[in-house]
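Sample intake sheet
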Amino acid sequence: MPGSPVPAAPEEAAPQHRLLERPAQREAAPWWTRWWVRVLAVYLAARAVTTAFLLILANAQGMNQWTAAHPGYFDFAAIWDGRWYNIVSISGYPAALPTVDGVHVTENAWAFMPVYPGVVNVVEFLTRMPWPVAAVTVSFLCGAGAALVFHRLLRTLGFSPSTALFAVVLFCVSPVSPLFQLAYAESLYILLLVVALDLLVERRYVALFPVVLVMAFTRPSGLAFALALAMHVVYRWVKRDSDPFPPRERVLGVSLTVFSGLAGLAWPAIAGIATGSWTAYTDTELAWRAPYIGYTHLVPFSSWFQGADWWFGYMLGLPGWLGVVTLLIVLVLFGIALFTPPVRRLGPDLRFWIIAYSVYLLAVFFPQSSTFRLLMPLFPLLGALAIPKSRVYRTALVVLFLALQVGWLLVCWGVDGADWSPP
């Protein structure tokens, strides 16, 4: 059953009669004023700008391990992890884990989940497109779908048409939005995630099961989503007097939480069974941080503190404890931001996801250049950034995002020799 409306600020309230227009009124409106036309127009305009950025960068790109100098767009868009997904699509996963010295596991395909390369393979087979073209096409279409569902989600939460559309603008021009047209799994994952969040807000638990499953085999997400679902179930239980929580929905909510947790553990289990090493997946993931801090074991919630010490101590030549203090300050400020009025406007379920995913990142990931990409699932916060209506503010924010997008492409996407800043 649909969820209760989230309280809205007076200027943001979306009158019910506007959300439920009569068919005759809807038919009378010119086609170019339809919400989905505007969303797609924003998405296409943003992708055109990013394409120009990428073509300029490709023209300046020298020879590298993936392409010749001055590569074409699609070859340039399929480097870095795109090559790993291509390897998965061609040869699958290794039965024996490759090692550097016979002991320490090195980078390998088990870090890359199968749904995205599988979808690309289907598109490649049906259309006879080359793999890079098929991969970029899948990402591009999934990004468009994600923008449409994100707009729908914000309107469901009661955001005004203007605010919802501007949130989509920010979504489409964000610093890591080039991923919507690169051979990475993020575009497909974000589409699945925004669909899952929309279903959660509407409390359509049954429909969530297949989405959660596919999402867990697209990008690591099952454990984080399970935590968000657990908070959702507890919140509904606490609020059951004012917002009924029928027994059927209790059973479905708890079952979905357990299911999501098991889905999150499934890929590491599959890697363990296939390779004979129960730590195959975590050892593979740890290989990507070895160039920074060497080969270590995964100790939950230690990685960001190790990273803070490394970045401040080794890279900046400052006392390592200063990095730890800075990290703690950032975490406190982030926690305070979650209780500010604009973020509260997102409603409890989106905030549960933001908290759960942030905790997950803090628990298992090491901060380095890929962190910008890994922050992408926190996109619901763009809804809060979109609330102010000042034209100066909105223009400045778009300009800032485009500038940061260029910075991200220059630092993370372009390849400069033995590059240590992967996207």
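Comment: Residues 33-413 form one domain. Residues 301 and 317 are 24 Å apart (CA to CA).
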